[in-house]
Predict the structure.
Amino acid sequence: MAQEIHDTVAELLARAGQRYTPVRRATVDALSGAARPVTIVDILDTADAKLAQSSVYRTLTVLEEAGVVHRLPGPVGFARYELAESLTEHHHHLVCVSCGTVEDLPASSRLEKTVAMAAAEVTADTGFKLHGHRLDLVGLCARCK
Ligand SMILES: [Zn+2]
Ligand SMILES: [Zn+2]
């Protein structure tokens, strides 16, 4: 993985008063190598290092608090995790309510323009200061349909 990402993660952790330990590094490697948001079980399956489930869970909590990891809520034990957009790229998700799979959906300029226009109306109406948006499309994947 790009050293740049590790440097940024180390910096975010330092800002949160945390060290970049080998378990945290292995977890970031697993997330970075995944093509989509993954569960803890996926991380345990793909990580090169032998990791304990409890330590990965604690690690993800620390990484989330430090702004390194974004957590997508799911049924108990089936939350999915990905690197935060500040480390990757802005994108959306396709969430299957049947099998629970989550696929990344690259942001299209057309969708971004539409969302930005809608958001501008909302901020003008409410005085809300916008930092960004998250958009997940929920439904059935091609296999479950
Ligand atoms: Zn599905
Ligand atoms: Zn977007």
In short: The chain has a mean pLDDT of 92. The radius of gyration is 17 Å.
